[in-house]
Amino acid sequence: MQCDEFDARLDRRLDRHQAPDADPLLRQHARLCPRCHEQLTAATRLMMGLKLLDTPPLGDDFTRRVVQQVAPATPKRRVWRAPLTLAVAATLLIALLPGTSYLLRTGRTWFATPPTPTSGTGDIAYMTSAPSASTPATADVSPWLHYRNSILQLYPEQIRTRHRQQLSALARDLSPIATPFNTAMTAIRRTIPVSQPDDKGQPSASTTPRAALGATHT
Amino acid sequence: MTDNLRQLIHHCLAGDQKAMIDLVDRFRGQVFGLCYRMLGHREDAEDAAQETFVRALKNLRSWDAERDFEPWLLAIAGNRCRTALSRRMRRPSVLPLLEPLPERTPDVQAARQLAEEVALALSTLREQYRQAFLLFHQQELSYAEIAVVLQCPIGTVRTWIHRARRELIRCLQAREVVESRHAV
Ligand SMILES: [Zn+2]
């Protein structure tokens, strides 16, 4: 055996995780060749030393620390956030629906210029649209509009005035965002097929008001 | 890969903390062993091992279920060790390569001394050689698995491991660890 053959054979043994000094052919050559003898001895010592390498023990709480860091990001906790978000969104939607529905139909706005105490103009549209004699017949208006009108008719004037004042103050506070809000409302309104009243205040025949779906038309 | 391990990982993905504990317990010795040999420092190795598991568990979805889990995990450990080593290079203080050892009986001490010499020789290796060598000889991964871990061709892995061995043998010879009484 030549020295380069010895090297190749030694590599093959080590590649197979076999003890290098257990190969008779390698030992035979090593007995005659000082260079390869040192190689074989060093390789044997190396593998022996590798097995003796100590690894200190890990801290007892290692696993707990790892899982603690990971646990908050697990999907288990996320599961509860979606229903909560949905519940909040649904509550808001239900709370805003009557007013928004009305505004969408009438084209009025939530916010207007602050009122003067005597004029009664520029008030909150939702609250100041008191029913008038010109209100269309029940069969021609949406259920929501009908509901709103009947509530306003029952409302005592004093309560209406007090609420008007409170809501006017609120409108003043919210006036900085009134313009963007109205712009957004206008944009939303354009996307919904709301009927436009004709000259006589009757819904046009071309579109069916969403809010009136299900209402009886004569 | 065993079905048992696959199932364990499946439970981890579902957020089962007990499964996470089992998974960490199953591989912690292996991961910490590699980190310790790569870094030669207990605290650094523990930090690297911890980061390895945290990353692995957080990114478990990115593991390809068609492949073995172990090389994927050890690849993360290797990356964490590389980061720790580069951090250490920027740090002025010199860290000990070996932990202080208690005194032992002569036989145990001789074995301990040999282990120390091997550890010292390992610390002189290039990072890639050391990692390839340890993955092969200590973790007993195949060349193909190491190629996955180190993201390089199998031929390169073979070359690195053979070179690492030659350098280690030279180092042991230079430090006269190879004595005549140990001759074969
Ligand atoms: Zn020879």
Radius of gyration of chain A: 43 Å
Can you count the helices of chain B? 8
Query: How many strands, which pairing sense, and closed or not: the largest β-sheet of chain B?
Result: none
**CATH top level label of the largest domain in chain B:** Mainly Alpha
Helix-strand sequence of chain B: HHHHHHHH
What's the N-to-C terminus distance of chain A?
A: 111 Å
- For the termini of chain B, the CA-CA separation is 40 Å
**Secondary structure: number of strands of chain A:** 0
How would you classify the quaternary structure? heterodimer
Note the total helix count of chain A: 10
How many domain units of chain B?
2
Helical/strand content category of chain B: mainly alpha
Q: Level of helix content of chain B?
A: over 70%
Bound compounds, each kind once, are: zinc ion
Largest interface: A-B, 42 and 45 residues
Order of helices and strands of chain A, N to C? Answer: HHHHHHHHHH
> Helical content of chain A, roughly?
55-70%
Mean pLDDT of chain B: 85
- Average pLDDT score of chain A: 68
CATH homologous superfamily descriptor of the largest domain in chain B:
RNA polymerase sigma factor, region 2, helix turn helix motif
Task: Describe this structure as you would to a colleague.
The complex is a heterodimer of chains A (218) and B (184). Chain A has 218 residues and is an all-alpha fold. Among the domains of chain A are: 3-52, no CATH class; 83-107 and 141-190, no CATH class. Chain A is 58% helix and 0% strand. Chain A has 10 helices and no strands. In chain A, helix 1 (3-15) packs parallel to helix 3 and helix 2 crosses helix 3. The longest helix of chain A is centred in the middle third of the chain and has 26 residues, at 81-106. Chain A is rod-shaped, with a radius of gyration of 43 Å. The model of chain A is unreliable at 112-139 and 194-218 (pLDDT under 50). With 184 residues, chain B is an all-alpha fold. Chain B has 2 domains: 1-93, Rna Polymerase Sigma Factor, Chain: A; 103-184, Winged helix-like DNA-binding domain superfamily/Winged helix DNA-binding domain (Arc Repressor Mutant, subunit A). Chain B contains 8 helices and no strands. Chain B has helices at 3-13, 17-39, 42-58, 69-90, 106-123, 127-137, 143-150, 154-174. Chain B is globular and about 55 Å long. At the A-B interface, helix 1, helix 3, helix 4 and helix 5 of A face helix 2, helix 3, helix 5 and helix 8 of B. The structure holds zinc ion. The site of zinc ion has 6 residues of chain A, from helix 1 and helix 3.
